[in-house]
Design a protein that fits this description.
Number of helices: 18
CATH superfamily: Amino acid/polyamine transporter I
CATH architecture: Up-down Bundle
Structural class: mainly alpha
CATH topology: Amino acid/polyamine transporter I
Protein backbone atom coordinates (compact mmCIF):
# COMPACT_ATOMS: atom_id res chain seq x y z
CA UNK A 1 0.00 0.00 0.00
CA UNK A 2 1.24 3.49 -0.88
CA UNK A 3 1.76 5.73 2.14
CA UNK A 4 0.37 9.30 2.07
CA UNK A 5 3.91 10.69 1.98
CA UNK A 6 4.83 8.62 -1.03
CA UNK A 7 1.56 9.43 -2.74
CA UNK A 8 2.26 13.08 -2.20
CA UNK A 9 5.68 12.87 -3.83
CA UNK A 10 4.12 11.20 -6.88
CA UNK A 11 1.52 13.94 -7.31
CA UNK A 12 2.07 15.94 -10.48
CA UNK A 13 0.99 19.44 -11.36
CA UNK A 14 -1.22 19.70 -14.45
CA UNK A 15 -1.67 22.51 -16.95
CA UNK A 16 -4.52 24.38 -15.26
CA UNK A 17 -2.85 24.45 -11.86
CA UNK A 18 0.37 25.64 -13.49
CA UNK A 19 -1.49 28.32 -15.45
CA UNK A 20 -3.19 29.62 -12.28
CA UNK A 21 0.20 29.70 -10.57
CA UNK A 22 1.65 31.90 -13.31
CA UNK A 23 -1.33 34.25 -13.59
CA UNK A 24 -1.94 34.45 -9.85
CA UNK A 25 1.65 35.51 -9.14
CA UNK A 26 1.77 38.03 -11.99
CA UNK A 27 -1.52 39.79 -11.28
CA UNK A 28 -0.81 41.66 -8.07
CA UNK A 29 -1.08 45.17 -6.72
CA UNK A 30 0.47 46.83 -9.76
CA UNK A 31 -2.48 46.56 -12.12
CA UNK A 32 -4.77 48.27 -9.57
CA UNK A 33 -2.52 51.28 -8.90
CA UNK A 34 -0.32 51.58 -11.99
CA UNK A 35 -2.89 53.55 -14.06
CA UNK A 36 -2.27 56.56 -11.78
CA UNK A 37 1.52 56.27 -12.11
CA UNK A 38 1.31 55.83 -15.88
CA UNK A 39 -1.15 58.72 -16.29
CA UNK A 40 1.76 61.08 -15.58
CA UNK A 41 3.04 60.15 -19.04
CA UNK A 42 -0.25 59.88 -20.97
CA UNK A 43 -1.76 57.26 -23.24
CA UNK A 44 1.72 56.51 -24.59
CA UNK A 45 1.73 54.04 -21.69
CA UNK A 46 -0.28 51.63 -23.88
CA UNK A 47 2.76 51.32 -26.14
CA UNK A 48 4.85 50.68 -23.04
CA UNK A 49 2.52 47.84 -22.05
CA UNK A 50 2.79 46.22 -25.49
CA UNK A 51 6.58 46.51 -25.62
CA UNK A 52 7.00 45.14 -22.08
CA UNK A 53 4.75 42.20 -22.91
CA UNK A 54 7.02 41.30 -25.82
CA UNK A 55 10.16 41.58 -23.71
CA UNK A 56 8.60 39.60 -20.88
CA UNK A 57 7.71 36.83 -23.31
CA UNK A 58 11.39 36.59 -24.29
CA UNK A 59 12.40 36.27 -20.63
CA UNK A 60 9.65 33.70 -20.07
CA UNK A 61 11.05 31.59 -22.92
CA UNK A 62 14.49 31.72 -21.29
CA UNK A 63 13.05 30.34 -18.07
CA UNK A 64 11.26 27.65 -20.06
CA UNK A 65 14.63 26.57 -21.49
CA UNK A 66 16.22 26.62 -18.04
CA UNK A 67 13.50 24.36 -16.68
CA UNK A 68 14.36 21.81 -19.37
CA UNK A 69 18.15 22.11 -19.22
CA UNK A 70 18.24 21.96 -15.40
CA UNK A 71 15.01 20.03 -14.60
CA UNK A 72 15.93 19.15 -11.03
CA UNK A 73 16.55 22.74 -9.98
CA UNK A 74 13.87 25.39 -9.57
CA UNK A 75 13.91 29.15 -9.52
CA UNK A 76 16.34 31.84 -10.67
CA UNK A 77 18.49 31.58 -7.54
CA UNK A 78 19.24 27.89 -8.07
CA UNK A 79 19.75 28.34 -11.84
CA UNK A 80 22.34 31.05 -11.30
CA UNK A 81 24.08 29.07 -8.58
CA UNK A 82 24.40 26.13 -10.96
CA UNK A 83 25.40 28.15 -14.00
CA UNK A 84 27.56 30.93 -12.55
CA UNK A 85 28.73 29.62 -9.18
CA UNK A 86 28.16 30.47 -5.53
CA UNK A 87 28.90 34.20 -5.71
CA UNK A 88 26.39 34.92 -8.48
CA UNK A 89 23.90 32.58 -6.84
CA UNK A 90 24.29 34.68 -3.71
CA UNK A 91 23.84 37.92 -5.67
CA UNK A 92 20.66 36.63 -7.30
CA UNK A 93 19.24 35.46 -3.94
CA UNK A 94 20.07 38.89 -2.53
CA UNK A 95 18.45 40.82 -5.40
CA UNK A 96 15.42 38.54 -5.52
CA UNK A 97 14.95 39.06 -1.80
CA UNK A 98 15.22 42.83 -2.30
CA UNK A 99 12.62 42.77 -5.05
CA UNK A 100 10.29 40.83 -2.75
CA UNK A 101 10.40 43.12 0.30
CA UNK A 102 10.48 46.33 -1.73
CA UNK A 103 7.57 45.03 -3.80
CA UNK A 104 5.76 44.11 -0.61
CA UNK A 105 6.20 47.67 0.66
CA UNK A 106 4.69 48.96 -2.59
CA UNK A 107 1.75 46.60 -2.14
CA UNK A 108 1.17 47.98 1.37
CA UNK A 109 1.03 51.49 -0.12
CA UNK A 110 -1.55 50.28 -2.63
CA UNK A 111 -3.70 48.69 0.11
CA UNK A 112 -3.64 51.92 2.14
CA UNK A 113 -4.67 53.82 -1.00
CA UNK A 114 -7.74 51.64 -1.51
CA UNK A 115 -8.58 51.66 2.20
CA UNK A 116 -8.80 55.45 1.83
CA UNK A 117 -12.01 54.86 -0.16
CA UNK A 118 -13.57 53.68 3.11
CA UNK A 119 -11.51 55.93 5.41
CA UNK A 120 -10.64 59.15 3.50
CA UNK A 121 -8.40 60.45 6.31
CA UNK A 122 -5.78 57.82 5.36
CA UNK A 123 -4.94 59.74 2.18
CA UNK A 124 -4.60 63.08 4.00
CA UNK A 125 -3.08 62.13 7.35
CA UNK A 126 0.48 60.86 6.81
CA UNK A 127 0.89 59.46 10.32
CA UNK A 128 -2.42 57.62 10.15
CA UNK A 129 -1.57 56.14 6.74
CA UNK A 130 1.85 55.04 7.97
CA UNK A 131 0.33 53.44 11.07
CA UNK A 132 -2.18 51.56 8.93
CA UNK A 133 0.66 50.31 6.72
CA UNK A 134 2.57 49.04 9.77
CA UNK A 135 -0.54 47.22 10.98
CA UNK A 136 -0.85 45.45 7.61
CA UNK A 137 2.83 44.47 7.52
CA UNK A 138 2.98 43.04 11.01
CA UNK A 139 -0.46 41.42 10.86
CA UNK A 140 0.48 39.32 7.82
CA UNK A 141 4.00 38.73 9.16
CA UNK A 142 2.49 37.32 12.36
CA UNK A 143 0.13 35.15 10.29
CA UNK A 144 3.07 33.64 8.38
CA UNK A 145 5.04 33.17 11.61
CA UNK A 146 2.22 31.12 13.15
CA UNK A 147 1.42 28.78 10.26
CA UNK A 148 1.48 28.24 6.50
CA UNK A 149 -1.71 26.10 6.62
CA UNK A 150 -4.50 27.18 4.34
CA UNK A 151 -2.25 29.57 2.37
CA UNK A 152 -2.88 27.63 -0.85
CA UNK A 153 -6.66 28.00 -0.67
CA UNK A 154 -6.28 31.61 0.43
CA UNK A 155 -4.14 32.38 -2.62
CA UNK A 156 -6.59 30.71 -5.03
CA UNK A 157 -9.51 32.70 -3.64
CA UNK A 158 -7.62 35.99 -3.79
CA UNK A 159 -6.49 35.25 -7.35
CA UNK A 160 -10.13 34.97 -8.39
CA UNK A 161 -10.90 38.18 -6.53
CA UNK A 162 -8.17 39.92 -8.53
CA UNK A 163 -9.70 38.99 -11.86
CA UNK A 164 -13.38 39.63 -11.05
CA UNK A 165 -13.18 43.40 -10.41
CA UNK A 166 -10.90 43.84 -13.42
CA UNK A 167 -13.35 41.99 -15.65
CA UNK A 168 -16.29 43.99 -14.28
CA UNK A 169 -14.58 47.30 -15.10
CA UNK A 170 -13.79 46.19 -18.65
CA UNK A 171 -17.23 44.71 -19.44
CA UNK A 172 -19.25 47.64 -18.13
CA UNK A 173 -16.67 50.34 -18.74
CA UNK A 174 -15.95 49.94 -22.47
CA UNK A 175 -19.31 51.40 -23.60
CA UNK A 176 -18.79 54.47 -21.37
CA UNK A 177 -15.29 55.42 -22.54
CA UNK A 178 -14.49 58.93 -23.74
CA UNK A 179 -12.00 58.55 -26.60
CA UNK A 180 -10.95 62.19 -26.28
CA UNK A 181 -8.91 61.12 -23.24
CA UNK A 182 -6.52 59.23 -25.53
CA UNK A 183 -5.39 62.50 -27.16
CA UNK A 184 -3.33 63.13 -24.01
CA UNK A 185 -0.62 61.01 -25.61
CA UNK A 186 2.46 62.46 -23.90
CA UNK A 187 1.64 64.93 -21.13
CA UNK A 188 5.25 65.30 -19.95
CA UNK A 189 7.98 67.64 -21.15
CA UNK A 190 10.05 64.58 -22.07
CA UNK A 191 10.63 63.44 -25.64
CA UNK A 192 8.35 60.62 -26.77
CA UNK A 193 11.27 58.17 -26.59
CA UNK A 194 12.04 59.03 -22.95
CA UNK A 195 8.38 58.85 -21.92
CA UNK A 196 8.06 55.51 -23.70
CA UNK A 197 11.10 54.09 -21.85
CA UNK A 198 9.73 55.27 -18.50
CA UNK A 199 6.32 53.63 -19.05
CA UNK A 200 7.89 50.39 -20.29
CA UNK A 201 10.01 50.20 -17.12
CA UNK A 202 7.02 50.83 -14.86
CA UNK A 203 4.86 48.21 -16.58
CA UNK A 204 7.61 45.59 -16.18
CA UNK A 205 6.67 45.39 -12.49
CA UNK A 206 3.35 43.75 -13.37
CA UNK A 207 5.12 40.91 -15.21
CA UNK A 208 7.34 39.97 -12.27
CA UNK A 209 6.43 36.37 -11.41
CA UNK A 210 6.47 35.05 -14.97
CA UNK A 211 9.15 32.57 -13.82
CA UNK A 212 6.74 30.92 -11.36
CA UNK A 213 6.05 27.85 -13.51
CA UNK A 214 9.73 26.90 -13.58
CA UNK A 215 10.02 26.56 -9.80
CA UNK A 216 8.15 23.22 -9.45
CA UNK A 217 9.45 21.89 -12.80
CA UNK A 218 10.40 18.47 -11.49
CA UNK A 219 6.84 17.92 -10.22
CA UNK A 220 5.08 18.90 -13.44
CA UNK A 221 3.45 16.46 -15.81
CA UNK A 222 5.33 16.49 -19.12
CA UNK A 223 7.36 19.61 -18.14
CA UNK A 224 8.94 20.07 -21.57
CA UNK A 225 5.49 20.74 -22.99
CA UNK A 226 3.43 22.14 -20.11
CA UNK A 227 5.89 24.64 -18.62
CA UNK A 228 6.38 26.57 -21.90
CA UNK A 229 2.66 26.30 -22.66
CA UNK A 230 1.54 27.53 -19.23
CA UNK A 231 4.17 30.27 -19.11
CA UNK A 232 3.43 31.62 -22.58
CA UNK A 233 -0.36 31.24 -22.24
CA UNK A 234 -0.30 32.89 -18.82
CA UNK A 235 1.84 35.77 -20.06
CA UNK A 236 -0.43 36.36 -23.06
CA UNK A 237 -3.65 36.18 -21.01
CA UNK A 238 -2.26 38.54 -18.38
CA UNK A 239 -1.14 40.90 -21.15
CA UNK A 240 -4.68 40.89 -22.55
CA UNK A 241 -6.13 41.67 -19.11
CA UNK A 242 -3.61 44.48 -18.57
CA UNK A 243 -4.16 46.08 -21.96
CA UNK A 244 -7.96 45.97 -21.70
CA UNK A 245 -8.09 47.36 -18.17
CA UNK A 246 -5.53 50.10 -18.84
CA UNK A 247 -7.36 51.16 -22.01
CA UNK A 248 -10.67 51.21 -20.16
CA UNK A 249 -9.32 53.27 -17.26
CA UNK A 250 -7.78 55.84 -19.61
CA UNK A 251 -11.08 56.12 -21.47
CA UNK A 252 -13.13 56.54 -18.28
CA UNK A 253 -11.05 59.00 -16.24
CA UNK A 254 -9.57 62.31 -17.49
CA UNK A 255 -5.76 62.35 -17.33
CA UNK A 256 -5.47 65.21 -14.84
CA UNK A 257 -7.72 63.37 -12.36
CA UNK A 258 -6.20 59.95 -12.96
CA UNK A 259 -2.68 61.21 -12.17
CA UNK A 260 -3.56 61.94 -8.54
CA UNK A 261 -5.85 59.03 -7.78
CA UNK A 262 -4.45 56.44 -5.31
CA UNK A 263 -7.37 54.12 -6.19
CA UNK A 264 -8.11 54.55 -9.93
CA UNK A 265 -10.28 51.43 -10.28
CA UNK A 266 -12.52 52.53 -7.44
CA UNK A 267 -12.83 55.94 -9.10
CA UNK A 268 -13.75 54.30 -12.42
CA UNK A 269 -16.29 52.04 -10.72
CA UNK A 270 -17.90 55.06 -9.09
CA UNK A 271 -18.32 56.68 -12.53
CA UNK A 272 -20.04 53.52 -13.82
CA UNK A 273 -21.89 51.99 -10.84
CA UNK A 274 -22.06 54.85 -8.37
CA UNK A 275 -20.74 54.92 -4.81
CA UNK A 276 -21.66 51.28 -4.10
CA UNK A 277 -19.63 50.16 -7.12
CA UNK A 278 -16.60 52.11 -5.91
CA UNK A 279 -16.80 50.41 -2.51
CA UNK A 280 -17.16 46.95 -4.08
CA UNK A 281 -14.17 47.43 -6.40
CA UNK A 282 -12.06 48.90 -3.60
CA UNK A 283 -12.89 45.95 -1.34
CA UNK A 284 -12.00 43.49 -4.12
CA UNK A 285 -8.70 45.28 -4.74
CA UNK A 286 -7.86 45.27 -1.02
CA UNK A 287 -8.52 41.53 -0.66
CA UNK A 288 -6.58 40.76 -3.84
CA UNK A 289 -3.62 42.90 -2.75
CA UNK A 290 -3.58 41.30 0.70
CA UNK A 291 -3.42 37.90 -1.01
CA UNK A 292 -0.46 39.03 -3.11
CA UNK A 293 1.21 40.53 -0.06
CA UNK A 294 0.74 37.29 1.86
CA UNK A 295 2.39 35.40 -1.01
CA UNK A 296 5.24 37.92 -1.18
CA UNK A 297 5.93 37.60 2.54
CA UNK A 298 5.92 33.81 2.34
CA UNK A 299 8.30 33.72 -0.65
CA UNK A 300 10.70 36.32 0.67
CA UNK A 301 11.14 34.28 3.84
CA UNK A 302 11.94 31.11 1.92
CA UNK A 303 14.69 32.48 -0.35
CA UNK A 304 17.11 33.62 2.40
CA UNK A 305 16.44 30.39 4.30
CA UNK A 306 17.29 28.29 1.22
CA UNK A 307 20.45 30.32 0.57
CA UNK A 308 21.49 29.95 4.21
CA UNK A 309 21.10 26.19 3.98
CA UNK A 310 23.39 26.30 0.95
CA UNK A 311 25.84 28.29 3.13
CA UNK A 312 25.47 31.42 0.99
CA UNK A 313 23.53 33.47 3.56
CA UNK A 314 24.33 33.80 7.27
CA UNK A 315 23.30 30.74 9.29
CA UNK A 316 20.99 33.08 11.23
CA UNK A 317 18.54 32.89 8.31
CA UNK A 318 18.29 29.10 8.36
CA UNK A 319 16.72 28.88 11.84
CA UNK A 320 13.06 27.91 12.00
CA UNK A 321 10.45 27.65 14.73
CA UNK A 322 9.04 24.35 16.00
CA UNK A 323 6.28 24.80 13.42
CA UNK A 324 8.87 24.98 10.62
CA UNK A 325 8.38 28.69 9.88
CA UNK A 326 11.51 30.87 9.34
CA UNK A 327 10.55 33.32 12.09
CA UNK A 328 13.90 35.13 12.13
CA UNK A 329 13.73 35.95 8.43
CA UNK A 330 10.10 36.99 8.73
CA UNK A 331 10.83 39.31 11.66
CA UNK A 332 13.86 40.87 9.91
CA UNK A 333 11.91 41.35 6.68
CA UNK A 334 9.04 42.97 8.59
CA UNK A 335 11.50 45.43 10.13
CA UNK A 336 13.02 46.23 6.71
CA UNK A 337 9.59 46.74 5.12
CA UNK A 338 8.61 49.05 7.98
CA UNK A 339 11.76 51.10 7.46
CA UNK A 340 11.20 51.34 3.67
CA UNK A 341 7.63 52.46 4.30
CA UNK A 342 8.77 55.14 6.76
CA UNK A 343 11.59 56.32 4.47
CA UNK A 344 9.17 57.07 1.63
CA UNK A 345 6.16 58.43 3.49
CA UNK A 346 7.10 62.04 2.87
CA UNK A 347 5.88 61.57 -0.72
CA UNK A 348 2.33 61.20 -1.97
CA UNK A 349 0.89 57.71 -2.19
CA UNK A 350 1.21 57.69 -5.99
CA UNK A 351 4.81 58.97 -5.96
CA UNK A 352 5.76 56.52 -3.22
CA UNK A 353 4.21 53.57 -5.04
CA UNK A 354 5.94 54.55 -8.30
CA UNK A 355 9.39 54.81 -6.70
CA UNK A 356 9.07 51.52 -4.81
CA UNK A 357 7.88 49.42 -7.73
CA UNK A 358 10.60 50.86 -9.98
CA UNK A 359 13.25 49.93 -7.40
CA UNK A 360 11.74 46.45 -6.98
CA UNK A 361 11.60 46.02 -10.76
CA UNK A 362 15.28 46.93 -11.07
CA UNK A 363 16.19 44.27 -8.49
CA UNK A 364 14.06 41.67 -10.31
CA UNK A 365 15.53 42.65 -13.69
CA UNK A 366 19.03 42.09 -12.29
CA UNK A 367 17.88 38.60 -11.31
CA UNK A 368 16.55 38.01 -14.82
CA UNK A 369 19.79 39.31 -16.35
CA UNK A 370 21.90 36.77 -14.47
CA UNK A 371 19.37 34.02 -15.25
CA UNK A 372 19.72 34.70 -18.98
CA UNK A 373 23.51 34.54 -18.72
CA UNK A 374 23.19 31.33 -16.67
CA UNK A 375 21.05 29.78 -19.39
CA UNK A 376 23.77 30.48 -21.95
CA UNK A 377 26.45 28.96 -19.69
CA UNK A 378 24.39 25.88 -18.79
CA UNK A 379 23.47 25.38 -22.45
CA UNK A 380 27.11 25.62 -23.57
CA UNK A 381 28.22 23.16 -20.88
CA UNK A 382 25.50 20.74 -21.93
CA UNK A 383 26.42 21.06 -25.62
CA UNK A 384 30.10 20.47 -24.75
CA UNK A 385 29.24 17.21 -23.02
CA UNK A 386 26.83 15.97 -25.67
CA UNK A 387 28.82 17.32 -28.60
CA UNK A 388 25.83 19.14 -30.05
CA UNK A 389 25.66 22.66 -31.48
CA UNK A 390 23.77 25.70 -30.25
CA UNK A 391 21.00 26.58 -32.69
CA UNK A 392 20.74 30.00 -34.29
CA UNK A 393 17.28 30.39 -32.75
CA UNK A 394 18.67 29.89 -29.23
CA UNK A 395 21.37 32.48 -29.85
CA UNK A 396 18.86 35.01 -31.20
CA UNK A 397 16.52 34.41 -28.22
CA UNK A 398 19.32 34.84 -25.65
CA UNK A 399 20.66 38.00 -27.33
CA UNK A 400 17.17 39.52 -27.66
CA UNK A 401 16.24 38.73 -24.04
CA UNK A 402 19.58 40.07 -22.82
CA UNK A 403 19.21 43.27 -24.87
CA UNK A 404 15.68 43.86 -23.60
CA UNK A 405 16.67 43.30 -19.97
CA UNK A 406 19.64 45.68 -20.23
CA UNK A 407 17.39 48.24 -21.93
CA UNK A 408 14.83 47.96 -19.13
CA UNK A 409 17.54 48.34 -16.46
CA UNK A 410 18.83 51.52 -18.11
CA UNK A 411 15.27 52.82 -18.32
CA UNK A 412 14.84 52.67 -14.54
CA UNK A 413 16.25 56.19 -14.23
CA UNK A 414 19.24 57.68 -12.43
CA UNK A 415 17.72 57.93 -8.94
CA UNK A 416 16.43 54.35 -8.89
CA UNK A 417 19.62 53.05 -10.53
CA UNK A 418 21.66 54.83 -7.84
CA UNK A 419 19.75 53.27 -4.94
CA UNK A 420 19.63 49.91 -6.72
CA UNK A 421 23.41 49.95 -7.23
CA UNK A 422 23.95 50.65 -3.53
CA UNK A 423 21.74 47.69 -2.60
CA UNK A 424 23.49 45.47 -5.15
CA UNK A 425 27.10 46.26 -4.26
CA UNK A 426 26.38 46.29 -0.53
CA UNK A 427 25.99 42.53 -0.77
CA UNK A 428 29.66 41.88 -1.64
CA UNK A 429 31.01 42.53 1.90
CA UNK A 430 28.16 40.38 3.23
CA UNK A 431 29.22 37.51 0.97
CA UNK A 432 32.82 37.80 2.25
CA UNK A 433 31.63 37.83 5.86
CA UNK A 434 29.38 34.80 5.29
CA UNK A 435 32.26 32.87 3.74
CA UNK A 436 34.48 33.81 6.68
CA UNK A 437 31.78 32.69 9.11
CA UNK A 438 31.52 29.23 7.60
CA UNK A 439 35.31 28.90 7.31
CA UNK A 440 35.68 29.62 11.02
CA UNK A 441 33.01 27.04 11.81
CA UNK A 442 34.80 24.43 9.69
CA UNK A 443 38.13 25.21 11.37
CA UNK A 444 36.56 24.81 14.81
CA UNK A 445 35.09 21.48 13.76
CA UNK A 446 38.51 20.34 12.47
CA UNK A 447 40.22 21.44 15.71
CA UNK A 448 37.62 19.71 17.87
CA UNK A 449 37.91 16.47 15.91
CA UNK A 450 39.83 13.87 17.97
CA UNK A 451 43.16 12.65 16.61
CA UNK A 452 43.10 9.12 15.22
Amino acid sequence: MTTPAKALTKAKIGFWTLLCLVMGNMIGSGVFSLPASLARYGSISLLGWAFTAGGSLLIALIFCKLSQEAPNVGGPYAYCKQGLGDFMGFQVAWNYWISMWVGSSATVVMVVGYLAVFFPSLSHNTNLGFGCGLLIIWGLTALNMLSFKGSGKFQIITTLLKILPLGAIVIWGLPHMNFDHFYAFNVTELPHSSAFIATATLTMWTFIGLESATIPSENVENPKRLIPLATITGTLLVTLIYMLTQTTIIGLIPNNILQNSPAPFALAAENIFGHFGALAIALGAIIAALGSLNGFILIQSQIPMAAARDKLFPSFFSKTSRHGTPVRVLFMTGCIMSFVLWMNYDKSLVEQFTFLITLATLAALTTYLFSIVSEVVISMKKRKITGGKVSAGSIILSVAALAYTLWAIVGAGQEVFFYGSILFFASTPLFVLVRAQYRRKNLRKDNDRPLS
